[in-house]
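Problem: given the chain below (55 residues), write out its structure.
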Amino acid sequence: MSLILRILFVLAGAITALFVARDALNFTVIQTFVAILLVTAVLLAGSLWSLRRKT
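Solution.
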């Protein structure tokens, strides 16, 4: 589980770095927000995949 979260945080850091400078004061806050969005997207995709397989 921690490996998955680390991968998501690396992706979140890369995505956040595209829009916010790494030395900005709120970089970690925005990175955490992007990571939460990524986790939500993965969970949504998983639940939709599960619903699709059942029908």
